[in-house]
Design a protein that fits this description.
The chain is of the alpha+beta class. It is built from 11 helices and 17 strands. Helix 2 packs across helix 3 and helix 8 packs across helix 9.
Length: 407
């Protein structure tokens, strides 16, 4: 009986803890299966103080794609989030909201959704980082200082959905190319940097700074101010399928940075101050991103295929969370003692975004966005909002240890 009492106390502490004060769970799962714990809006701290009307427009963008789906299509890798038809019912109601007040928007979400707290391998707490839309300087042709290529999707890049061959691998995708009638892994970053794609002539633009290009790959989209004074918007088109490596880990291993001071700013500073080593370090991240030219629009294009909204769009692990799902985030605010508590929409993904309780917060464009994104390494947790008509499968529901123990 004393053990159960201790567990109950820990559970209560986890429930009441505020932003940035959450202890690591007493009991940790060894896998990172996504589990959901039913909750309610009155249990979400500061739910009533957010400007939820700002989440309506990005949700409408996602709904425009959801409404085109087969109503029987599953939402999520294993359909835990229901069917497209169930979401279409909610999306159709949303179409009537043109200029909602915060109270209108809040009531819409409360009337149509149930919040579920997300839990993964480390309980309900995870890592939330930030990204932004960088600005580079370049040209449409290679000349002078503009010698770093920004590539479009190569002609020989092949994407394979493994679930089409084995149902157990549903949601898994590999990228490759055909060589001697066999599918082999696609070129690594170092091979591409050495000219593996030169003959394909897939250059969208040429920029003047290799470090800027590297960070464009990490962010996934950006603006290139051309030498003719026009601006070229580029967005994620594909990737080479090679493993992503955070080079900050290597710089910590070398003693160049520490866990306390590693950030996008400190990594960039080190690369710029060590040009003789920068290329080799950047090539340790074998992942490589290919881009497409975008029309002028209100924001960069996320992987879902809709323009991203600053402070309302979030990148998630697509193997865990489907696009278009509203997500309430509670996380430490970078460079501040405050707390991010706001409603976001899952509209993007990234090579480093893996895990059930993991996300990348889109800050927008500009110096402040770059500053916030570069510093953000926040502990936090989240709730998914699912339509009330969705019945979450029993195997996806979180069951506290004290409830699962058998006498």
């Amino acid at each position: 009986m004393h053990c159960f009492k201790c567990i109950a106390v820990v559970t209560l502490c986890l429930t009441l803890a505020g932003c940035g004060t959450l202890p690591w769970p007493l009991f940790k799962k060894t896998d990172d299966t996504l589990y959901l714990q039913p909750s309610s809006f009155d249990r979400i701290q500061n739910w009533s103080t957010d400007n939820q009307s700002e989440a309506i427009a990005p949700l409408q963008k996602s709904c425009a794609l959801i409404l085109k789906k087969d109503p029987a299509a599953e939402m999520g890798v294993d359909g835990f989030a229901g069917t497209a038809g169930q979401w279409q019912e909610v999306c159709n109601k949303l179409s009537t909201y043109l200029l909602p007040t915060d109270n209108d928007a809040r009531q819409f979400f409360q009337d149509n959704f149930i919040p579920y707290e997300v839990r993964g391998a480390r309980g309900r707490e995870g890592l939330f980082t930030g990204y932004y839309e960088p600005t580079l300087h370049g040209s449409r042709g290679k000349h002078g200082k503009f010698r770093i290529p920004i590539y479009g999707r190569p002609h020989d890049l092949i994407s394979v959905s493994l679930g089409d061959f084995k149902p157990l691998l549903k949601g898994e995708t590999i990228m490759g190319r055909v060589q001697d009638k066999k599918l082999v892994p696609y070129y690594k970053r170092a091979e591409i940097e050495k000219g593996a794609l030169k003959k394909q002539r897939r250059e969208i633009a040429w920029v003047d700074n290799a470090v800027d290009a590297f960070f464009l790959h990490i962010q996934g989209s950006g603006q290139i101010v051309l030498d003719n004074h026009r601006t070229l918007h580029v967005g994620y088109a594909a990737e080479n399928g090679q493993p992503y490596m955070a080079i900050g880990q290597e710089l910590i291993r070398r003693g160049a940075l520490t866990k306390d001071n590693v950030s996008m700013q400190s990594i960039r500073e080190w690369l710029e101050q060590h040009p003789e080593d920068a290329s080799d370090v950047m090539n340790l991240n074998t992942s490589y991103i290919f881009f497409s030219k975008l029309a002028d629009q209100e924001g960069p294009l996320g992987a879902e295929g809709v323009p991203l909204t600053p402070r309302r769009s979030i990148a998630v692990d697509r193997k865990k969370i489907p696009y278009g799902v509203p997500l309430w985030l509670e996380a430490e605010e970078p460079d501040n003692d405050g707390c991010l508590q706001l409603l976001m929409i899952a509209q993007d993904t990234g090579g480093a975004i893996t895990g059930s309780v993991r996300g990348d917060f889109f800050w927008g464009a500009g110096e402040e966005a770059e500053h916030k994104a570069g510093l953000m390494k926040s502990r936090g947790h989240s709730w998914l909002l699912l339509p009330k008509s969705v019945t979450v499968p029993k195997e996806k529901l979180y069951q506290p240890l004290w409830m699962s123990l058998q006498w």
